[in-house]
Amino acid sequence: MNEGAKVIRLDVNVETRQRPPARRWPDQPMQPTPVTSLSDHRPGMPAAAPKTLTDILRDAVGEQIERTAEFARRRMTGDYQVDEFGYDRHLLESVILPALRPLSDYWFRVEVAGIENIPTTGGALIVANHAGTVPIDGLMLQLAIHDKHPAHRALRLLAADLIFELPVLGALARKAGHTLACHPDAERLLRSGQIAGVFPEGFKGVGKNYADRYKLQRFGRGGFVSAAVRTGVPIIPCSIVGSEEIYPKLADIKPLARLLGLPYFPVTPLFPHLGPLGAIPLPSKWYIEFGEPIVTTPFEPEDADDPMTMFEVTDQVRETIQQTLYKLLAKRRNPVFG
């Protein structure tokens, strides 16, 4: 028994000599290796807990508070610029466009094609069809160019006088970069290297009945072409599908329109029967496509005063937009509101 006990003690001593106990030096305390990411996780160490919905919402609220504080600081200190037309880029990119993105991304689900046809620098004139009873298509067009173009260019729309006479909306339109649809303003924008946008159909297009949807109205006398020729900028045809269905106009209460000083007073399936609820646009599927630029450099400046030449170019632009509309409508085979 004693010999057996000795043998056991001997085995214990041998084991102790082969594996000495780990020492912790007072001046070099042992620290665990931090886990910086999931890829750094090692067996035996606890993994970082995934963020909960509460954490995500807290981060989002924190970021929004920081953005709001930064916006307020710049507005209070005057750390922003306004050009001669009243364009306030800081307000546009911080307030106006962010308010439009949910409508474009989740309600209309706008798809954009041909954005590469818009130049990265220099002036250009975008000519588009107009529809929808309420001119939301102009806002969606401005947002599409800013968000999809690599240079995030700002579209300066040439709008009717009525827009700038409306309270609040008129001031916002100026701050968003838009101006009157007149030759002097159009040429000043184009010569300064801006992208201007025009809807030649005017109220005839935006206020047409639903039965006439996607049938282009008269483009006028081609004033937009003469502005492009005088400044030597390209004309880019733009076709928009989806705007016709947001407020299907079934009738027009003309006496009420004259009383209010409006070009028309629409009757839609929801308005005015449902009151303010009728102002909610229907969630139609949108496509915006920019065609190949029509260069104006081959023309001489005096060609801008030739009615026949301007009419031919105007007709070319109109026909390009109309044919592209037919193509996009054929592409949209799924339900309009699907």
UniProtKB/TrEMBL annotation:
It comes from the Bacteria. This is Phospholipid/glycerol acyltransferase domain-containing protein. InterPro entries: P_lipid/glycerol_AcTrfase_prd, Plipid/glycerol_acylTrfase. Residues 17-45 are annotated as: Disordered. Residues 124-243 form the Phospholipid/glycerol acyltransferase domain. GO terms for cellular component: membrane. One of its GO terms (molecular function) is acyltransferase activity.
